[in-house]
Give the backbone structure.
Amino acid sequence: MPTTVPISGLSGPRRRALPIGVASFLIKRQLITIFMSIELMLNAVNLTFVAFAHMWHQITGQIFVFFVMVVAAAEAAVGLAIIIAIFRTRQTPTSTRSTCSELRTSKDTRLEMPASTSG
């Protein structure tokens, strides 16, 4: 006979994971650590959805978890691409000076303004 985990057994990890994710998001400066803390917060929310869906015998929470996982995978792909772009331009993965203007190179995105012909 399979044993079931009570909702109180799942509340401990999810209660710890979300504040840890929020604290590390606010405190850390390394982009990879910030990125991992966002993933930790998403996983804490997913655990909450699965626990309550199991408690109420509903599948909608588990379907919602699937969509959150799809968004997290897309966020992982785009986030890592942005981190790699920042690292290539500045050679450091910290978030102290991250601006969009630093990511531009003078050759690729320079817009030449035409000389005004008003006389």
Q: What stands out?
A: The helical segments are 7-27, 31-55, 60-90, 100-103, 106-109. The chain is about 70% helix and 0% strand. The chain has a mean pLDDT of 79. The domain at 11-96 is CATH 1.10.287.3510 (Helix Hairpins).
